[in-house]
Q: What sequence folds into this?
């Protein structure tokens, strides 16, 4: 009897192992989802090209082509070694990556065009990655960006850190390094070694992005429902986010130190969004009561929470004397700049590039005096 | 569907339970091929990290 049980258990274990090997082999030959995170590491996909036939976002191109260069970033190929140039890498989440904007239309690529008016040679790459928070930025910097030694790194961050604060405790621990429970620790360990577990890890991370209401979404402002959130509920949500925002501020300060320790000048940008006070000039929609996903209930509450994180960005910039593009205050609350509540249309990406250009051009000039040709505007406030 | 029924029948009749993980893996592969073809793949790279 015991012999039979042991034999069956052994056969089942062999079956599981064979199934795992089969899946592993399949994913090595045909990686369908291009898992961008494996364990604690960021994976880049050089020369990866996505073609999207877009029928979801009426404000965007119908036929979207989004390609990576040899580094796995968006933008031009690296310049030959020894070229006197201003080199900038933009780091952030989906609002930096601008996945659904075709090549050349994301804000970092537009920033390059604007900077070319003031610099002889400019190289700007877009290293934004959908869903990445300051944890992802740290991994990206440590593994890739620092080795490239750009003159400056522009961080547009805060939104996904807010999403992590909204995630459940177990979800958060999948990302944070300290005190991971055994299941999360095992998954991260296995994901670093196996494509099957990496796929599982990425699907879990995707599901929590959905739960936090952060993924790209169609938004018809004329038909969107509204929701009231009481003052007590709003206060409770903001209180829940306060520790998360403070931790974000510390991580951001760590990124600033990491950059400066490697001879890279950081530039910080606050995260703008459509939500806030008043009405959208294009549709007349109420930008306070607009219903949003995740825990926030409505737009005004989500904006108030995001401002906690933006305040940390402002505080870090002031305390560490880092150039700041305060996009959250500079971008108008106008749906012509967004296709959902946070992601930029072409007009929005152009305005972001313009604001970063105005706010950081003079700092860039100090970094690359040999490439500077003059003509930086005076802040543009 | 009939093929799957036959396989399930074989497993039940011969008590070859160790086949189950392999069949599930094959189903996963099929599902990945079907659901990740074309534009639908793009949103899945939004991994909160």
A:
């Amino acid at each position: 009897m015991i012999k039979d049980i042991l034999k069956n258990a052994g056969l089942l274990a062999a079956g599981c192992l064979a199934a795992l090997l089969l899946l592993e082999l399949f994913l090595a030959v045909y990686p369908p989802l291009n898992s961008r995170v494996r364990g604690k590491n960021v994976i880049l996909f050089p020369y990866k090209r996505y073609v999207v036939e877009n029928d979801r976002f009426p404000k965007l191109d119908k036929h979207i082509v989004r390609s990576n260069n040899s580094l796995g970033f968006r933008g031009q190929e690296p310049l030959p070694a020894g070229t006197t140039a201003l080199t900038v890498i933009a780091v952030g989440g989906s609002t930096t990556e601008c996945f659904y904007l075709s090549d050349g239309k994301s804000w970092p690529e537009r920033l390059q065009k604007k900077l070319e008016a003031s610099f002889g040679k400019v190289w700007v790459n877009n290293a934004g990655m959908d869903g990445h928070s300051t944890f992802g930025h740290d991994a990206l910097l440590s593994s890739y960006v620092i080795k490239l030694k750009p003159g400056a790194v522009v961080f547009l961050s805060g939104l996904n850190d807010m999403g992590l604060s909204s995630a459940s405790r177990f979800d958060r621990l999948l990302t944070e390094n300290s005190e991971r429970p055994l299941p999360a620790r095992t998954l991260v360990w296995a994901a670093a070694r196996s494509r099957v577990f990496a796929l599982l890890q990425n699907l879990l991370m995707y599901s929590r992005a959905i739960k936090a209401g952060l993924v790209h979404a169609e938004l018809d402002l004329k038909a969107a429902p509204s929701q009231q959130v009481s003052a007590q509920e709003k206060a409770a949500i903001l209180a829940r986010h306060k520790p998360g925002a403070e931790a974000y501020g510390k991580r951001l300060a760590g990124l600033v130190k990491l950059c400066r320790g490697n001879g890279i000048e950081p530039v910080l940008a606050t995260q703008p969004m459509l939500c806030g006070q008043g009405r959208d000039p294009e549709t007349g929609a109420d930008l306070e009561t607009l219903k949003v996903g995740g825990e926030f209930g409505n737009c005004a509450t989500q904006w108030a929470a995001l401002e906690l994180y933006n305040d940390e960005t402002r505080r870090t910039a002031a305390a560490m004397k880092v150039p700041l593009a305060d996009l959250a205050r500079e971008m108008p609350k106008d749906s012509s700049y967004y296709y959902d509540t946070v992601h930029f249309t072409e007009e929005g990406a152009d305005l972001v590039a313009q604001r970063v250009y105005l706010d950081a051009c003079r700092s860039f000039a100090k970094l690359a005096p040999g490439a500077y040709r003059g003509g930086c505007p005076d802040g543009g406030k | 569907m009939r093929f799957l029924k036959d396989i399930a029948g074989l497993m039940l009749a011969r008590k070859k339970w160790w086949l189950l993980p392999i069949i599930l893996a094959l189903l996963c592969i099929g599902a990945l091929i079907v659901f990740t073809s074309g534009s639908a793949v793009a949103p899945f790279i939004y991994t909160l990290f």
Q: What stands out?
A: The interface with chain A takes residues 17-22, 24-26, 28-29, 32-33, 36, 38-39, 41-49 of chain B (CB under 8 Å). Residues 1 and 7 of chain B are 10 Å apart (CA to CA). The longest helix of chain B spans residues 19-35. The helical segments of chain B are 2-14, 19-35.
